[in-house]
Amino acid sequence: MKEISKLLSYRPDIKVVDATLRDGGLVNDFLFTDEFVKDLYTANLRSGVDYMEFGYKADREMFDESKFGKCKFCDDDYIRSIVGENNTDLKIAVMADVGRCNYKNDIHERSECPIDLIRVATYLHTIPTAVDMIEDAKKKGYEVSCNIMAISNTQEGDLKVALDILGQSPVDVLYIVDSFGALYPEQIQRIVSIFEEFAVKYNKKIGIHAHNNQQLAFANTIEAVGDGVDWLDATYSSMGRGAGNCAMELLLSFLKNPKYNVYPAIKFIEQHMVPLKEQGVTWGYDLQYLMTGVLNRHPRSAIAFTKEKRNDYSEFYKEIIALD
Predict the structure, then answer these.
(1) Three-state SS for 311?
(2) Per-residue confidence (pLDDT) for residue 5, from 0 to 100
(3) 134-136-140-146 Cα dihedral, nearest 10 degrees
(4) pLDDT of residue 7
(5) Burial tier of 67 (Cβ tally within 10 Å: 0-12, 13-18, 19+)
(6) I want to staple 202 with a disulfide (CB 3.0 to 4.6 A). Which of 116, 167, 251, 311 is the partner?
(7) In angstroms, rounded to a whole number, what is the distance separating the alpha carbons of residues 192 and 207?
(8) In the 8-state DSSP scheme, what is residue 314?
C-alpha cells in the first residue's frame, strides 16, 4: 500500500518544472510574445515553481529560424532579455533533443550562460549519444536530467539496461516520459519501481513528464508522487503537444509544500492562456488523442486530424487501427 505520508506531508525534495514554453511551444511553433514569456516568468516566481523550461536548443541547420519563435532555439541573450541576471530561487532549464541539437557548439559554459539545467531528451536507441550529451553538459557546469521518451513502448529488459548505462553517467535526474499518454497509474507504479532500483543504486533523482491523452496526466503524476518521485513536470492550462500535459494549476493545488501558491497561476491563465485559446491555438484532450493513447501510438496522426478540423472520429479510429 502507498505511504500516505508521501501524498499528504511536506516533501522538501519535490521540484516543480514548468514546461509550458517547451511542450506548449510545439502547439504554436513557439510563437510566444515577449510579454507572455515575461509574465510566465513572473507567475512562476510568485507560484514558487522551481524550474522554468524556456524551450529547446534546436540546431539551426536543421530548423528554419524564420518558421519558429525564439523559444525553439533559446539563445542566451534572449533568455537574459526576459530574466536579467535571474537573482531568484527560480532556475532556468532548456531541452536538448538527441539528434536535433548542436550541443557542443550551442550549449555554452555554465559560467557564461543564464541556464541552470540541461534536459537531455532521448529514446532508448540513442542512449549512447545521450550519455555524451550528459557528460558534455556536466563538464560545462550544468545540472542535467535525462528524459527517456516513449516509455510505454519499451521492453523492461531494455529499459533496465538503459537505466544502468545512464546511472553510471553524471546525470542528476532520470525522467519517466509518457510521450503517448498511454499509461495508467498502476503501470506508472511499476515503472517507478524499475527506475527506483537504479536511482537508489546510483544516487539519482526520478522525474515524471505525463501527457493527457486519456485524461490521466494529473492522476499519473500524483501516482508518481506517492511512489516517491520528486521532479514533476506541468504546464499552465495543460498546454502541450496534442492532448497536453499535467496541468500546473492542478499540481500546485495538490502539493502540500507551503512555498507553492496557485493564485498567480490562476491569474496568468486568465490573462494569457484563455486569450490564447480564443485566438485559435488548439491543444487538450479530445477523442482523437484518446484513441492514439489507448492504442499506444505517437499522436502525430491525431495532431493532423486536429489541424484538418476533422470531426469524423469513427472514421479516424478505423484509419488508425488499420495501421496494425
Answers:
(1) coil
(2) 59
(3) -10
(4) 63
(5) exposed
(6) 167
(7) 9
(8) H
> Which ranges in the chain belong to alpha helices (H)?
5-8, 20-23, 25-28, 34-47, 76-83, 103-106, 127-139, 156-167, 185-202, 217-226, 248-254, 263-268, 274-278, 287-294, 300-307, 313-321
Nearest CA to 5 out of 286, 295, 187, 225 is that of: 225
Cβ 255 vs Cβ 222: under 8 Å = no
Whole-model pTM above 0.70?
yes
User: DSSP characters for 186-232?
Assistant: HHHHHHHHHHHHHHHHHT-EEEEEEB-TTS-HHHHHHHHHHTT--EE
Structural domains present in the chain: 5-278 (3.20.20.70), 287-321 (no CATH)
Under the banding of pLDDT at 50, 70 and 90, the label for residue 68 is very high
> In the numeric block, which cell numbers belong to residue 225?
508522487
Query: What was the pLDDT predicted at 2?
Result: 62
C-alpha torsion angle, residues 222, 224, 227, 231 (rounded to 10): -110
Long-range contacts of 110-113 (CB under 8 A, 24+ apart): 110/140, 110/141, 110/142, 111/141, 112/76, 113/76
248-295 confidence digits (pLDDT tens):
999 999 998 889 999 999 999 999 999 999 999 999 999 999 999 999
Q: Which grid cell is 186?
A: 498502476
Burial tier of 231 (Cβ tally within 10 Å: 0-12, 13-18, 19+): buried
Choose among 13, 50, 10: nearest CA to 229.
13
Q: What mean pLDDT is reported for the chain?
A: 96
Q: What is the mean pLDDT of residues 216-226?
A: 96
In the predicted model, is pLDDT for residue 147 greater than 80? yes
**130, 141, 64, 53: which is closest to 97 by C-alpha?**
130
**How far is Cα 56 from Cα 172, in angstroms, rounded to an integer?**
19
Q: Output the nine-digit C-alpha cell for 163.
A: 537505466
pLDDT at 6 over 80: no
